[in-house]
Amino acid sequence: MMQIIAQDFIDFDEFSNWYAQKPGNRYELHDGTIVEMPKPKGKHSQIAGFLMAELSWEIKQLNLPYFLPRECLIKGNNLSGYEPDAIVLDRNLVEDEPRWEKESTLVYGKSIKLVIEVISSNWSDDYALKLDAYETLGILEYWIVDYLGIGGRKFIGNPKRPTLTVNILENGEYQSKQFRENQLIESPCFAQLQLTASQVFKGQ
Q1: Is position 168 within any domain?
Q2: What is the pLDDT of residues 50-101, one digit of tens each?
Q3: 148-178: b or e for each residue (b if 16 or more CB lie within 10 Å)?
Q4: Which pTM value belongs to this model?
Q5: What CATH number should be reported for the domain holding residue 175?
Q6: CB of 129 closer than 8 Å to CB of 155
Q7: Domain count, the chain
């Protein structure tokens, strides 16, 4: 569960400076409020690690100009900043990021090929708040991995079940496609990826 750290209303630059002094924990800025994010544990951590390993292998095999940083911060707007579970960056475009080298902070959506959020108790943020922010930034592809099937019915259907949603940017808006069980995930960023939703949910 998220915990509000400070009630004071701050902007992204203040948050970034504050965050630099807080190693070890995960924080995000939501509408000007600092919140402490739960560290990935158990299956959540396993799935995030599995996806990073699979995508890194795909990048290496196909010699793609991408990489997965260990951690980074995405500036949503002047009052928001997010730390995703996994992210794929374009090695060539990230050179144009003004805050990358000193802060590991991304401000341009074009530098980001794919961002992944693994669902936990704060699922509404991933389906709404972050989806809107990533769409506005122009991030081409955004995965929501709901391995417990806990998202709202309007997002994953009824009955609720484990669902991986791939959001693809088309004409400035995300178009969503859902994958379940043994369906192969369709990813514009990784067109040759041979990975099922079930494999992701198991983290193996």
Answers
A1: yes
A2: 999 999 999 999 999 999 998 899 999 999 999 999 999 999 999 999 999 9
A3: beebeeebbeeeeebbbbbbbbeeeebeeee
A4: 0.92
A5: 3.90.1570.10
A6: no
A7: 1
